[in-house]
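Figure 3 (text version): structure tokens given as input.
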């Protein structure tokens, strides 16, 4: 009898077909958004889960799902997973890093540029039929080339953004991270390490690529925004909750920073309605990794982890590898 796994939301049909070769699959191709209780009830009948990175696996879920052996996230982020609790229960957690690095960096840079150059604001103006004549200051934005790019969070994606800024746009790149990179990596990225306060004060364009944790909640709040230049832009492609959305709305409304580009939000897909009345913010629905090729690679990596662990006892990208080989 094939092991039973559940796929939390709709995914590429070819990935579902591949998983069916190995497992008894419960899919959700109708893309129903299950409540936590519904998700837990369904999950309790399965040994493996294919998650989109939003489906919770916490202590209460684990207690209700004693058969569960693995949850494979189709995302690099894993704040939906209580990894310490999963480790205590002997459940493997995996994510999908690396395959989305360059695509996400592309999007982060594009979002930063759109905010700096007022792309969506000017498009709305044009579509509304308001463009009647040329003016020297029509939607004059901020320079990107030669400016100072600040990056908070210097993992794979942060480094990829740094390379784009330094090598492609001649930007002065500064960064802040929990730990400083090696001199060799800094040189390859064209980046210089600074303290958090200096990063906030010096960056013309601040890009956030910080993993979410309880400690990282509201890393950027009113006090941090107050340290930024009034001409600066803020781009968040990290996770909702890294930024205090309410404080950011006030700062944008009052012109205390020039603009923002946001792909993630607190409580998403819910959105603070204060953003919708602002012209100086570019809003996208958590699509930084959304190219067909990248999303397919992410899905196959999650499938690799499920197949590898449940059929051979191995996984490509474990978050708690100490579980592998342990008995529950």
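Below: residues designed for each position.
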């Amino acid at each position: 009898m094939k092991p039973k796994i559940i796929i939390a939301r709709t995914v590429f049909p070819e990935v579902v077909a591949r998983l069916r070769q190995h497992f008894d699959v419960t899919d959700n191709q109708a893309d129903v958004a299950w409540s936590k209780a519904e998700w837990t009830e369904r999950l309790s009948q399965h040994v493996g889960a294919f998650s989109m990175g939003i489906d919770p696996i916490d202590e209460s879920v684990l207690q209700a799902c004693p058969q569960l052996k693995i949850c494979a996230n189709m995302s690099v982020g894993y704040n939906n997973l209580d990894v310490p609790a999963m480790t205590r229960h002997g459940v493997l957690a995996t994510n999908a890093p690396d395959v989305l690095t360059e695509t996400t960096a592309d999007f982060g840079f594009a979002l930063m540029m759109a905010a700096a150059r007022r792309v969506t604001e000017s498009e709305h103006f044009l579509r509304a039929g308001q463009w009647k004549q040329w003016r020297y200051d029509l939607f004059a934005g901020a320079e990107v080339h030669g400016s100072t790019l600040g990056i908070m969070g210097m993992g794979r994606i942060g480094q990829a953004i740094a390379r784009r800024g330094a090598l492609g746009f001649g930007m002065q790149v500064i960064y802040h991270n929990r730990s400083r990179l090696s001199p060799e990596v800094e040189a390859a990225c064209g980046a210089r390490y600074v303290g958090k306060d200096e990063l906030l004060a010096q960056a013309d364009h601040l890009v956030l690529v910080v993993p979410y944790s309880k400690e990282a909640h509201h890393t950027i709040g009113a006090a941090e925004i107050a340290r930024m230049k009034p001409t600066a832009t803020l781009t968040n492609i990290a996770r909702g909750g890294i930024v205090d959305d309410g404080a950011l709305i006030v700062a944008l409304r009052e012109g205390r920073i020039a603009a923002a580009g946001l792909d993630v939000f607190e409580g998403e897909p819910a959105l603070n309605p204060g953003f919708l009345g602002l012209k100086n913010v570019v809003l996208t629905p958590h699509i930084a990794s959304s190219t067909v090729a990248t999303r397919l690679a992410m899905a196959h990596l999650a499938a690799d982890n499920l197949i590898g662990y449940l059929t051979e006892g191995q996984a490509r990208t474990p978050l708690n590898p100490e579980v592998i080989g342990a008995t529950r």
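The two ends are 21 Å apart (CA to CA).
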